[in-house]
Each structure stands twice: as structure tokens, then as C-alpha cells.
Amino acid sequence: MSIWFDDIPTVIIFERAARREYAGLQRQDARRPRRLSYELCVDVPGYDEERHVRIEFPAAPDAWPRVIVDGHEDSPHRYSDGSLCLFYPGDAPEQRWVLADGLAALIDTIRVHLFQEEDARCGHGWSGEQA
Length: 131
Prior knowledge:
Layout: H1 8-21, E1 26-31, E2 34-43, E3 50-58, E4 66-69, H2 103-121
Antiparallel strand pairs: 1-2, 2-3, 3-4
């Protein structure tokens, strides 16, 4: 079974904009368990914070990325393992990130999520849509 990240031209296109926008982006390929991972540090917009982000793509055709971020974990928009809940799986593709959007768009979504978490921690409520 072929996985999307086994095709090098596909990976290059997927990463292209992210490599231009995020200088510290690092790719890691793992064989056991089979997955593609990225690590980078991002700033939290509007707050004087930087967070270390790990994005993991499992070797499954329709698997969603798992996003782990250091720092605060006290958010109702996280799964039990601490990973970010970035979108509702039942949403239509137009309402959520999809692979064709590319890595830069996913990182942008993560940054918005981190802003919303920090804003909510400061007592401003959750500024985005919720499921």
C-alpha cells in the first residue's frame, strides 16, 4: 500500500510554502511506527510566547495529523493525549484543513489555535468556531 508521503515530489510540493515561511522546520521520517513528522517553533500571535510543535502523519491513507505542542495543556480543545483538536472530523473539507492545503496552511491553523487557547486562558473566551 502506497502512502502519500512515499512520493517525494508530493512531499516537496506539500512542504514548499512552509519551508519558505518557517526557517526552523525539520522533517523526520520514521520507519517503526511508519510516519512522517515535522518539528518547529512558532510564535503565538498577539502573545509573547513561542511554542515547540510536533506534527505527525501516520502511514494511513486518510489519517489526520496529530499535533503536539509544549506548554499549557489546560484546554477543552485538546484530546486526552494532549494533542490539539484543530477541527471537527465530521466537518466538510471546505470547513477544515485537508492535505491538499499544504503544510504551511496547517501550521497557520495551529498558530490560530494556540492564539485562541491563550486568549481563552486570559478570560476572553474561545474566539473560534466550536463543535
